[in-house]
Write a structure and sequence with these properties.
Blueprint (H helix, E strand, L loop, with lengths): L3 E12 L2 E13 L4 E5 L6 H8 L7 E6 L2 E2 L3 H5 L1 E4 L11 H11 L4 H14 L15 H13 L5 E5 L7 H18 L2 E5 L3 H7 L2 E6 L2 E7 L10 H10 L2
Parallel strand pairs: 3-8, 3-9, 6-7, 7-8
Antiparallel strand pairs: 1-2, 1-4, 4-5, 9-10
Helix pairs in contact: 3-4
Bound molecules: adenosine-5'-triphosphate and magnesium ion.
Length: about 240
Amino acid sequence: MPAIEIRKISKKFKVYGNEFYALKDVSIDIKEGEIFSLIGPNGSGKTTLINIILGLLIPDTGYVKILGKRVEDESSLEKMNFVSPEERFHWVLSANDTLNIMGKIYGLDRATRKKRITGLVELFGLGNVLNRRFDGLSTGEKMRLALAKALLNEPQILLLDEPTLGLDPDISIKIREEIKRINKSYGTTILLTSHYMKEVEQLADRVAFIKNGKIVQVGKTNMIRKKGQSLEEYFVEKVEEG
Ligand SMILES: Nc1ncnc2c1ncn2[C@@H]1O[C@H](COP(=O)(O)OP(=O)(O)OP(=O)(O)O)[C@@H](O)[C@H]1O
Ligand SMILES: [Mg+2]
């Protein structure tokens, strides 16, 4: 059974009366325990697909199953968590309050919340900004808070939409190491989008290239490209192809 089963998903958007497909007939099986990366140019449909997997957007056709159950099933939601570059928490709440409130929403008791939050704060170096309001955090601090939130419910499936966007190299390296460690230690299935091909090369077991809402190719990260070709060169070649 795949961790995420994506079947014949299509999604149309209408902008000023013009309809277009953001996703067209997308089918992918993401295996349990793998790191799978979705790559493709801006506007190719990556975030739209992640939102559909999360149940935030309803597709026009097709379905998504999370560990065998339709995403509409309430239990599916509890198995997942996500990080999005657009993630906003309430601007007036401190990082600490944000994590506590999210922990309550996830149904964690006080002792579990305290234990997990302490661990995550240390992991993402949030100690010195814990009492700062969300609107006072830098881009990188916001992203680290979003990552801490995403691990609070110990999800089996993690959806990471550009998790290192806007981060300095030092923290990006730490976050990549952490993504790898979470995957190895807990067998967490991870779906990752990124424009940093080095990051994808380093992390992903398999890659799907998406263009104009269609999956062009899926394969193992080191098999998908020609011999001697970097993933960056592969990307450019795919963009330029017809
Ligand atoms: N709510 C919406 N209404 C109309 N069009 C939308 C909406 N959301 C996304 N789109 C359009 O759908 C297409 C796919 O967008 P999406 O955000 O999924 O791309 P992406 O692959 O995540 O791009 P990026 O790499 O820039 O993050 C784009 O053309 C975008 O403008
Ligand atoms: Mg996107």
